[in-house]
Every structure is written in C-alpha cells, then in structure tokens.
Amino acid sequence: MAITASMVKELRESTGAGMMDCKKALTNTDGDMEKAVEWLRENGLAKAEKKAGRIAAEGIVKTFISEDGKNASMVEVNSETDFVAKNDTFQNFVADVCQQVNASSAADMDAFLAEAWAKDTSKTVKEELASMVATIGENMNIRRFEKVSVDNGLVVDYIHAGGKIGVLIAAETDNTGAEVVECLKNVAMQSAAMNPKYLSSDDVSEEYKEHEKEVLLAQAKNDPKNANKPDNIIEKMIIGRLNKELKEVCLTEQVYVKAENKESVAQYVAAVAKNLGTDIKLVNFVRYETGEGLEKKEEDFAAEVAAQMK
Description:
3-stranded antiparallel beta sheet, elongated, 49% helix
C-alpha cells in the first residue's frame, strides 16, 4: 500500500512522534493506522528504556484544584533539562497527570502508574509516560504526588518561578470569599519562601523533639561559658533554644514575612478572620520544590563536543 503524506501527517498529529518514525511505522504495518500507532508505542517503549538511566532532576511542579475548591492535587514530574521542562507538550502532560491524580484512588506511585491513562484507557499511566519519553527524547519521571481536601473550607495553591516550587494550603472556614483566598495565598507564599517542615509544633513528633534536645544539651555542655551553670538553668536554656528552632520550622509559628510588627503566621490569619467575622483554621499544607534531594547532572560541554568529534 502506498504511504501518503496525509497518512504520515495524521499519524504524527495523533502520536506526536517524528515524521520519519511515522513513515517507518506505516510502512512496517502496510498502512494500517491502528497497527502503526501500536508499532510506535512498542518502539517508543524500547527507546524509553534506553533513556531510563539518565538523570532527570529538572522538571516542574503543577497543581490542580476542583471547581468547588475543596479538593486539590500536586505533582512533581522530572525531565533531564530545564529546556524540556518549559516545552508545551511536557507542560500539558504534567497538567494531565495532576488532574488524573485528583480523581485517582491510588495510594502510592506504583498503583498510580499501573492504572489506566484517563485520556486513553487502552494504555496505562506508565505506558503514556514511556510514550512521552520517546516523543520528547529525554528521560522523564513522575516523582511524587499529594492530594489535599477539606470538608468545609477551601484549598488554595501557589506556584513560584513557573513551577520550581508549588504549595497547597488547606483551611477550614465558612467564608470562601476573595479576602480569605488572598489570606491563604499569602500563607502559601510564606511557605514557598521560608520552607517550613511542619504546620505547627503540635505536628512535630516527640522523637524529633527529644533528638533535638539531646543535640542542644551536648552543645550547651561543650560550651565553656556554661561550665559552672546548674543543670536546671541549662535545661531552661535548651527549652528556649528548642522553642526558637520550632518557630523556624513550623509554618504557623514562623514570623509572617509581610508583617511590620513581627506577628506570626497564626496571628496574621487570626487577625484576618476577626476582621471578617469568621473562623479560619489552617489544617494542612504541602510544599514541593523541583529536584530537591535529587542528584543533578553536571554538564561538561567540552567533553561532550570532544566525544562527538571522535
């Protein structure tokens, strides 16, 4: 069967694969469009395997919030380069992943990757990811996801620097108006800037507190200035230092960065609530920073050029 330019164009538009790959797929399947798609998927998976060993530490964080504002999801999807992370095809894929997470009942990444891809249930999420790897030409990885919801209130998001940092803030409140949304956006921006580890000190485990107290006790006893101080004084010093440390790592207890009077985030939220005659209770937050904890690929352009010249 003769392979026409319009057939190649149709296959390319439906799969995103390269023009020559589409022509080869149609030639190998005698012009059968469905079989050609399968051929591309099968070969795409093979290409994806070759790319799977590459470090994918760039990428973006995206969020999705339901129309009623009560359910939200956030994902981090990694790529090898920042250039690909800004690509529209990549961005649209991440947005689709985030929307699927919001509707998914998967409890972990393995379960999520194994479920049917919502936009084409003939393949799994993992297979769609592999197809994207083949199409874009870089290793990609759906690294993590989180879902946040409230029964009575709303979830607000904040994306910083085009997806380098993403934050979800959930609050219980009867008022979901613009003033409350603005308040929660400000808290989300605080989280993006100050990188808290916990919502409040109530969420910090006793194990963490005891460990920190041991560290602070060792520091205090090794300080010559404390050599003659009684144990009860040193104990008070340690508690003071621990409380100061907790204020730095707990969102509601951090100094609100926009405040002129050094009020805490909790005090700022309480003041907004009082002014509006309502209650606002922060109940959850999630903060993702793209590539945090991942090994970054060191670029050596001189070596790369030299290798290509050989």
